[in-house]
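for the writeup, i need someone to sanity check this before i put it in the appendix. the sequnce is what the collaborator sent (i think, or maybe the updated version? ugh). structure was predicted straight from it, no edits. if anything looks off just tell me and ill rerun, i have time this weekend
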Amino acid sequence: MSVRRYALALCVAVVLVTSSAHADESEVLVPEGEPESILSEAHWSLMGNVSAVAFSPDGRLLASGGSDGLVRLWVVSTGRELRRLEGHTDAVSAVVFNQDGSTLASGGKDNTVRLWSVDTGRELHRLPGHSDLVRSLAFNPNGQFLASGSGDKTVRVWSVGNGTLQRTLNGPVDPVLSFTSKGKLLASSLRENTVRQWDVDTGQELPPSTSDAEASALRAVSRIVEVFPGGSPDVVSVYSPTEDVLASTANGNVIQVRDAASQRVLRELKGHTSPVETMAFSPDGRTLASGGGDNTVRVWDIATGYELRRMQGNLFPVWSVAFSPTGDALVSGGSDALVHVWDPATGLELNRLGAPGGPVRAVATSPDQRLLASGGDDGIISLWELKSGRQHLRLEGHTGPVYSVAFNAEGTQLVSGSADGTLRLWSTRTGKPLGAPVKEHEGPLRAVAFSPDGRTLASGGDDGSVVLYKLRSSREVYTEARPIGSNPDGSTLIGISPVLVEGQSVEPFRRVRYHRGPVRSLAFSRDGRFVASGGDDATVQLWGTQPNDQPRLLKGHAKGVWAVAFSPDQRFLASGGGDKQIVLWNVSTGQPVRALHGPIGWISSLAFSPGGHTLASGDDSGRILLWSLHQAPPLQGLLRGASQGWVSHLQGKSVLRSDDGGFLSHRLTDGALEAIAPARQGLPPRLSIVSAELRVPPGDFGEPGELILTVANAPDSGRAYWIQLEPVELPPGLMLFPASVPRLDAGTTVEIPVKLSYLRPDLAALPQAPQLRFKLTHAFGEETAFTSPLVLLSPELVLAKAPQLKDGTLTLTLRNTGSQSTGPLSVTGEFEWHGKQHTGPNQNINDLAPGEESSIAIPLSNEVLKLGQFDLALTVSYKKWPRTRSFIVPAVKIPIAYSLYIALALGALLLFGFVYYARVYRNPMVVHAARSPAALKHYPLAEMAAADQALRRAKRLDSTITAAGIPATRWQRALGGAKTPHDAATAFAEAIGGRLGASLGTNTWALSLPQLRLRFARDTAVVIIDGTRLESGDAERRMADVFQDGRGPSQVLVLDRTQAQNARQVLEGVPQVRCAVLSANRLRDLLLADEPVRLLETTISEQVSVSELSPYQVAGGVKMESFFFGREREVRAITDRSVRNFLVVGQRQMGKSSLLLAAFRRLQVRSDLDAHYVELADADLHRRLARERGQVPSDGSPLPPFVDVASGVPSRPRVWLIDEADDFISADAKAGYPLLQTMRALAEEGRAHFILAGFWDLYRAVVLDEKQPLRNFGEQLRLEPLDARSALALITDPMAALGLHWDTPSTTELLVEQAGRRANLIVLACKALVDSLPPDTHVLTRENLERALREDKDLRDQSRRWRGDHPLHRAVVRQALLLGKPTREEVRLALKARGADIRSSDFDEAMDHRELSYVLVPDGDGRLYCPVPLMQRYIESERSLEVGLTEDLEDLRRRGLAEVPRPA
């Protein structure tokens, strides 16, 4: 099956679903219908899968690279493939022409760069060296060097002449490369937030700042890195040809158009419904093309933000777009392996260039219609999500084209057959092969099929045989050597571990060879008893699956049989193939019942309706025919559609369509596509423009205008189709966006709105009498051109008066002589004399209306005033659009009064200059900082202000702090630390991300800290200590003012700026004071640090006991976001945009409260929800919710109705996170579920949603009680232990914040293993370690851990919870441990052998209780074990298992075995 047939099949599926829903929204182009002949050579536009495209400099050729590793050269004008450049062994990711178009460079996933001759197609050089995908290529201006950037973090520079490597530069990840006009190499990476540049000749990396004009591009890229913090790899950005406009998007649907110099957002382009994947500017920078995941290419007017054209109809995302050098053609490539050439002005497809990836030869949909599988010549099977069109998985393994694929009945497995002769079975969940490939055919394998029960496979191949296979589950155990530690001598200790691998084995059990040629199709009957096969020998073989069943040969076709299908009742078999007929066979007799003929092609697929009354056929032309099995003629139908329109044709009826000329087309002899016009009926149309009304004149900078044209079709004429307005002659900078009219009948008129956009070209004069000249076109021709007068609005700035110089100030007057307001203006004056330049201060003008003037006063420096004469260059920048207006005022003279005074002044100036130089430039601080910039970081806090002042005078501050690696903001913050106490407190709060509050006393302020990893109060205070030294009496008074007898903060931070630096020693002697003291040097380090919060945590942990700071807690849930580890999947599910009911089930202390609190923190910030967290202490949910809402009457009157308390409104529903819900569930069940029924109704109405968390009662209601309304109340989340990574983070991250570290990784792994990844046990163990650690110890050893596990009382108490609430709970655990990984049945039989014949329901419920408690859980084979070694250790240490089990059984007998109660 070709790509075109595959895409059309998907298109038909979409149209069949959507056409009825939108039938009234599309106007039929020709109401009376059209003949079938218009469909004979019809093409439908579909876009394609191309990873890289590039035009040659002259626009004549197009290069494309695809996933097949080929680079293709196309002639743009004809669409002819000129050359195919073969060499890459994997996908091509980048292509670029050199400046004269003679050489093409390509890079790919095979980590190589290749140079090609464009004239001959010969590979000039193969350039290996990269170790990762080559992502970017760039030729230098003279074409001598080529730069390549890769994901391996290197940029390599190659000689184009001999292909040798010139330089290897350490670059950023995934760099985007470009050369400046002077040959400097730029590399930017939004993934790493870096922009770097090199001198290619020397390989030297240049500093970020440069005096070259091309540095504007570097600065612009640097700013965009700042705009998108975090360096998302999904950022797409592109500069306009003039580099003054930047279009960018960060993993989103909206494109932002920015001024490249200031990064100010000028426009937002909205329209894409999925992330934008690619963008390109037209050569004149006026328009932008974009493509994305919504399968469209869009062309935008940059000035107005209007969407000019939308090219769509393809089914898959668009990955690349590019304009031709002249801007009259646009190419796009995407996931359907085609390159499309478009006219950006009309949106019509000019040409279509063949598929780089080869044809798709096999498709199949899963039974649940969720997935579609496709295979083709590249040997790769793709699984696609039908709903989104995105690729789900790639199944790689075949070494030849894939000819057939089929799903099993559950859709969990896929079988494939290939030209490599192998059959492969795949998991559709993981994309991994299930077992080894099976090769039972000689030659290609053409057909595969699953039996209905999924236990049997069939395959047919070119050898004419059909093979049946049995599917069997397989389990294999092998050993694997893994490092498990270190020997005393330092060598690695290796352990041998068993590894279990599960899969499916495919075992052939029967082979038949009934065909004399390739087998093309296979089908199982519904009961799996019969198999039908069709082949190239024009026969159908019908045979049973049992070994002794004899085949029946069904003859009736003249050519190969490519499709077979059983009717649902198995009475009939349908077959079709290359003879363009369908034959119905009687399965019982093997005789043909009837033959179906019609205007069909080669039959490629057949399917019966569920009732068996209708047969659907698909052929190579893309038609779908529906055949009624009770009448001779078929009900023939053709349906195709896309956003451009649709086509419908049913048997005996005319063709109906809704087409704007861009949907249905045919191919001309030169390969171009031309729209299929309706047939002309009678007279030709005669169109004329009755009136042209300019309702809104267009303004400069893209301010929209509107022209209304009234178009008439003469009464004595024919109908007109596809009426469009085409410009003939337009004023420069004007663009038209006319609406199109699909149809205009004779004698009728229509108003056509024409949107106008005007962007006056730079340096162009405003036309004095502008006019439009355009013509009307239609499907059958065009009309005489029409001219309409026009008004264009634009500002025009002039210097109204000569410059005036008075009192050292130069005054200039600007006047707007145009017809439009200027908007905000920025004015800069530059003075030049003797080759030197001086830029004056920037001036702003809010707006200049037409005819309005504004004066600008520019103060002149003494240096300028002493010149006597200078040239003035005045630059006015518009803020509406990146445009400037320049005025040159030559030879501005400054009057000089007395030459003698000037001479004296010059002498004084020289003397002053000498003294100034000695004091400023030879200042010891300046000299020292110049020699050792890094020393600035270690200056005393009090000396930083003097250093700042000295460096500023010498104009070396910026360069020095840059060389020292100190950002300017941090330097200013450090200076604030040495200023007034309030400045110091403010700088400290800003550095750590805190918030400074009200004053609490002398040099004391309230301070709200950010979330620390320590248990240190967030609401604290900061105290500034100044002076010579801190006296003990003063310390006591200051602390008393802060703590206020317990009413103030419990902990404070002290910034010691005294000369003696004795605050810490003095405060240690003040009783009942909890504080952390930052010395002046520590404060300086914090203000300059990259991570000041981490430095603050270190300071606190050095001075406060770790047991006081430890964040490890075991009750009430985790309330600190920074201490919440794991459970991200569950939190995301609960806080999804579409909030719904959830039931969270888990053992006590498994983390339910922490999970609900984490979800509550995220839901709480959403404005569209009203979220509440409540913890139930009893069964009265109604009263607890009313108390949360403040609706409990104080006078003891009845509570408000539950509905009023619990519900919100659909636009802002109330979300209740209800913890400890077990007692409520039990009580509501006894009352007949009144509240649960109400809660369900509120959720269905969208007024409230409920997340209930509990243990056994909730689990029993959800899983065990079939009558409980909770069975389908909401989605169930069953909590398991933490994943290994989160458990390890829980052990290490808080300890690091406390300044504690583990001796070896094996110690932390021991704790994870012993605790069974249960968060509560990990926290208890860590808490025990912290509490028992000596004060001066900072390393946690294995010995410390084992002692805590062995001796800690809280751990022992927690582990005793294994006992449960009933002796049966204990008995099943001890019996299971005695047996050593038994099954449930083995436990039951062992207890029965001991005389405990327990009811099955009681036994099963007790086992469920133990499994949910995470005491006994089954492995993959259903065998039970204790997953928490620490708990098992405590179980076995209480008493011997045998003795304990005997006591448990005695207890059971005393209670009565027949009356075992339900577990509580």
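The chain has 31 helices and 88 strands. Residues 899-920 form the longest helix (22 residues).
thx in advance!!
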